[in-house]
Amino acid sequence: MNEIGLEHLLIVSTCLFFIGIYGFLTRRNMITMLMSVELILNSVNINFIAFNKYLFPDKLDGVFFTVFIITIAAAEAAVAIAIIINLYRHYKSIDVNDAEKMRF
Amino acid sequence: MGIEFFILMKSEWALMLIIFILLIIKVNGTYQDNAKLLLFTNILLALNFMLGFVSNQSGMLFNSMFHTNSLIAFEKNILNFATLIISLQAYTWLKNHKHMLEYYMLLLTTLLGMFFMISSGNFLMFYLGLELSAIPLAALVNFDLDKLKSSEAAMKMVLLSAFASGIMLFGISMIYGTTGSLNFAELPALITGSHLQILTLIFIFTGFAFKLSVVPFHLWTADVYEGAPVSITAYLSVVSKAAIVFVLISTLSPLFAGLTTVWYNILFISIILTIIVGNLFAIRQQNIKRFLAFSSIAQVGFILLAISAGTALSNTAAIFFLIVYTLSNLGVFGVIALVSDETGKENIDDYKGFYKTNPALGWVIALSLFSLAGIPPTAGFFGKMFLITAGASKGSYILVGIAALNMVVSLYYYLKIVKTVFIDPNEEPIVPIKTNMYLKLSLGVCMIGIVITGFTSGLYDYIYLLFRL
Predict the structure, then answer these.
(1) Residue A35 sits in which domain range?
(2) What is the pLDDT of residue B312?
(3) Which of A53, B50, B114, B340 reaches 20 to 30 Å from B80, CA-CA?
(4) Is A35 exposed, middle or buried (0-12, 13-18, 19+ CB in 10 A)?
(5) How many domains does chain A have?
(6) Residues of chain B positioned with their CB less than 8 A from the CB of A33
(7) Which of residues 195-254 of B touch A (CB under 8 A)?
(8) Domain of residue B91, residue span
(9) pLDDT tens, position by position, B26-47
(10) Is residue A102 a part of any domain in this protein?
């Protein structure tokens, strides 16, 4: 049992996924929240690659999907950071608790 | 590859063409007059809408990544129509706006993303379409760059939509793991109902629920609707919701046909929560955009009620209601956009005595809200009736009973607005507002649409015909 199998990779990716969710829900810094979302996306990438390698080595769907996820994550981060910078100009802070103009 | 390649993707090609024409005008920088350019853009959008009626064929492209048929073409044309109306209503706001071309480019890019999403035959294509519609939308929400609320709303939207699509992607990756395919045509046979696949369904539904603002994933809705510019709020509440509902009807429910019981149970709980929470929170709102946000949450609950039945007849009811909802919601938003642009007032109390100073606009609000509440002879009555009938066909009378009771609650708060507009006295009512040709045209189309679809059944029959093709 020295070989690294599918289970090992899935455990890693699941851990990453829940660390990402935990970070998103508890952190109050917008940049850190964005990083938590990136963790979630990376866990998905690991999932796709692992499934592709161990279960369906003759297909390439998973690998392609990963490439697109990485690209879109970059686009998303660019727009999100632009918005956060714009917010910072108003509030002089990137803490979500300071952005509380609207409450119900 | 040949002429068919262009005909099947004609709505996408047309949109791309418009985006590039506007881009070239922007890069050249030769235009001075916003008004002329707005006229030009609106004519382009109207042509685009008319193009949706001709030569709708069915077929597949790119190794079944992209598929289309006459129902999908019709759905795309509903979105085209709504975008055209929103563009007409944004005239007052954009007339003096220095970033007017960017507004249209971002708006049409999100529309293009929705088209690809509706036409997708593969999870990869679906995800790309979803993100193409979500990312520029966040930039649009932040379009009032110097307004605090706008930035705050955009921040909430971009973080939460990234989070939601992350959760949905995790679900998609597990689908790939359990079936080895991402193709919508192959998947229904492979999804048999193992525990991992049930978890997958929950993850993917969560992603959809975020975009549709189904309770308990609705918390971003009110804030984003309040902070965004009015025409973007209208776009979010009509076009972006309609696109997700179309995908839900044509893609997701056939995909999980093997998990009907789980699918129905998930919908059962979320429908009850959505309708009740949407209605109760709508009662206590002071800001009219927040009010419309919660009322649209409640309306989504009613649409899901029809989708839960899952027959051709119930899907017809859902699409018919979406058209009615588009017309009525855009009627209200047109007036709100005008008032907000001219006076900056967005509170419900500001609308006291509105009828005395602006009788025609007062009637538009009243007719649209009657239609949203479901009072005959407006189209909203038949829309709601078909939805409830479709929900009842599944035989769950608890669900239908709760929905019917909540229609009474919704009647209360819609009529409260009508009372504010018509009866309540006010020392300083909103001054008489001059409307322009574009707004008159858009509101006229909405009002005529509401009344005519209330009296004739042609549209409903046509949609049902498309489902049986």
Answers:
(1) 6-93
(2) 84
(3) B340
(4) middle
(5) 1
(6) 159
(7) 222-223, 226-227
(8) 3-468
(9) 888 777 788 888 888 999 999 9
(10) no
